[in-house]
Amino acid sequence: RPAALGAAAARCAPARDSHGPPAQGHGSSKAASLHWTGERAVSVLLLGLLPAAYLCPGPAVDYSLAAALTLHGHWGLGQVITDYVHGDVPIKVANVGLYILSGLTFAGLCHFNYHDVGICKAVAMLWSL
Fold first, then answer.
1. How far apart are CA 18 and CA 115, in angstroms?
2. Rounded to two decimals, what is the model's pTM?
3. Where in the cell is it found (predicted)?
4. Coil, strand or helix: which one is 116?
5. Smallest Cα–Cα separation from 15: which of 93, 77, 91?
6. Cβ neighbours of residue 5 under 8 Å, at least 6 residues apart?
7. Which residues contact 53 (CB under 8 A, 6 or more apart)?
8. Per-residue pLDDT tens over the stretch 50-109
9. Rounded CA gap, 81 and 75, in Å?
10. Is 86 marked as binding a ligand?
11. What are phi and psi of 117, to 5 degrees?
């Protein structure tokens, strides 16, 4: 009977996070806690950047928005991969694709900020239509 309980517990165990090594002791718990805190900090930063983009648009806000939006999207899509992609090889392929997409997104936003009007001005121009 104890073997059956062990098998049932293994089936009910949470899925491994695809963005790091399997959980091992208390070290991974602290890393997960820091990651959760970072996600919340970026979300709060975005809440502050939105009014700042309206009130005082400029290069500093444009590049901050580029970084925060890219990081926020990267972490969000990473959770989609964790939830819906299964198997070692598909997870690795999806994570590589995510890093490529995030890098291209950040590079594109920085290019747009440097060579064009920037994120804040572009949104203002869209609102003026």
1. 36
2. 0.72
3. Mitochondrion inner membrane
4. coil
5. 91
6. none
7. 61, 62, 65, 119, 120, 123
8. 888 888 899 999 999 999 999 999 999 999 999 999 999 999 999 999 999 999 999 999
9. 10
10. no
11. -80, -20
Q: Packing angle between helix 25-55 and helix 119-127, nearest 10 degrees? A: 50
CATH fold of the domain at 38-127: 3 helical TM bundles of succinate and fumarate reductases (1.20.1300)
CA dist., res. 59 & res. 116, Å (int): 11
72 in a labelled binding site: yes
Q: Which residue has the tokens 């009014």?
A: 51
Domains of the chain by residue range: 38-127
Amino acid at site 99: Y
Query: What gap in Å lies between CA 59 and CA 114, rounded to an integer?
Result: 8
Pairwise CA distance, residues 111 & 114, whole Å: 5
Distance CA 109, CA 65 (A): 9
Query: Which residues have C-beta within 8 Å of that of residue 7, sequence separation ≥ 6?
Result: none
What is the secondary structure of 47-70 as a DSSP string? HHHHHHHHHS-SHHHHHHHHHHHH
